[in-house]
Amino acid sequence: MKSPPPNSPVIKHIHIGTAGWTLPKDHAPHFPPPGDAKLTHLQRYAHRLQCVEINSSFHRPHMRKTWERWAATTPPDFRFSVKLPKSITHEAKLNNAGALLQAFLDQATGLGSKLGPLLIQLPPSLAFDEPLAHDFLTTLRELYPATYPAALEPRHASWFNPAADRLLRSFAIARVAADPPKGHPAAATPGGSQHLHYYRLHGSPRTYYSPYTDADLTHLAHTLRSTPPTTNLWVIFDNTALGHATANALHLSRLLNL
Predict the structure, then answer these.
(1) Is 7 a domain residue?
(2) Beta-strand (E) ranges in 166-248?
(3) Which residues pair with 197 in a beta bridge?
(4) Which CATH number characterizes residue 219's domain?
């Protein structure tokens, strides 16, 4: 695999996007017209937003040529974050997952230099087990070196302690900042390795449905501007059920002059 490109000198290395690249009808005018038969939904999406989080990989594998096609049809600076399969996180529960990880990486690395952070979302029932977590992260970094970004979204209270944070830092793994926070209030703020801050905004108060207000996004823009320039910033809106993710991502991009 090729090394990721160096951080952009413009403000910070920041990518704003949504979970999936569905374009809600209400916001379609912000994207190239669908009447151009040459443009796929992904190409239209990538015309305005800087990244996308692929969640379908959680449910099913994709052929390597599919990943390669997605990479080939998006702009040079576009990036994809990719969610690990549930077979690793929810079924194997991180235990003896080397073969599953290798199969997944053989597919997803078809994105080449457009592969952004790996997203490791854990089930709410999975408590912090330091030996198990150490073994899993060791295997991950043997297959996917620490020069490549990864973010963990734990949802059990036991992960929000100094021991877990030290472990994540030692493997250069960021802890997701989630809204609404699950498992512990600290889930709302970035943890683990500080080279990457990965925000997953699921919608609040109603998860997946609620939009974020102008005040919410203005506050987030201030937080992002205040982050050290060496930090790689990702903001993914997952409040997709009613299409608010697209509007929120476009608004935040405007607030940051992207």
Answers:
(1) no
(2) 174-175, 177-179, 191-192, 196-201, 232-237
(3) 233
(4) 3.20.20.410
How many domains are there within the chain?
A: 1
Place of tokens 């951080």: 7
- Quote the CA–CA distance of 242 and 134 in Å, as a whole number: 39
Residue 121: which H helix or E strand, with range? strand 115-121
Q: Cβ of 217: how many Cβ atoms within 10 Å?
A: 23
State which residues form the domain around 35: 13-255
What is the C-alpha separation between 69 and 71, in angstroms, rounded?
A: 5
* Phi, psi dihedrals of residue 255, rounded to the nearest 5°: -60, -30
- Which region holds residue 172: left if phi is over 0, alpha if psi is between -120 and 50, else beta? left
Question: Which H or E run includes 216?
Answer: helix 214-225
**13 membership: H or E segment, kind and range:** strand 13-19
> Which stretches within 86-151 are classed as H helix?
86, 98-108, 130-143
Over the chain (258 residues), the average pLDDT of each successive run of 10 is: 34 86 84 75 93 97 97 96 98 98 97 97 98 98 95 98 98 98 96 97 95 97 93 97 96 92
Residue 157: exposure state from Cβ atoms within 10 A (0-12, 13-18, ≥19): middle
Would the pTM of this model clear 0.90, i.e. be above it?
A: yes
Q: What stretches of 40-114 adopt beta strand conformation (E)?
A: 51-54, 79-83
